[in-house]
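Here we describe the complex-level prediction in full. Unlike the single-chain runs in Section 2.1, the two entities below were treated as one system.
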Amino acid sequence: MRGDVPTFRELGGELCAVGSGQPMHARDFIEQYGLDFPLLVDPDLVAYAAAGLRRGLGSTLNPRVLGSVWRAMRAGHRQEKTKGDPWQQGGAFVISPDNRVWLEQVSRTAGDHVDPVRLVDALRAASGHG
Amino acid sequence: MNVAERLSPIDLLDPDGRAVRLGSMWSERPVVLVFIRHFG
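The structure predicted for the assembly as a whole is:
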């Protein structure tokens, strides 16, 4: 999704990421990946809850996810020590200044990511370019 | 109340530990707001 930031900005929008964990985790993340968009942390998961995002063992460990993990490990990827809540699922929203929600995606499981094309289409509509 | 209205008044922390009103992220322009599972 980082690669889509220039497109988001061309459309008059911005990417903002929220993570669980502590500010120091965000600092490390920014440094590690060279991020140049706002990154906030929600240590108490207040915003995650308000957004209706899922949390729990069932959505984190299920056959579909374990299959993805197995494929990633065979490809040589290893999960580093988790910084934040390992049971929390993510999600994505496109919101305009009038608090209108143009896209709402609640991840059902780990690995259930929104299609970036849908984000661009929603942002284009939110920016009045649709 | 929709999800944007619920999220807007919530204060989160920036990487330096300063409080940031979440709604300020879309007060002047549309935002793609992404909740990531965890860092690392």
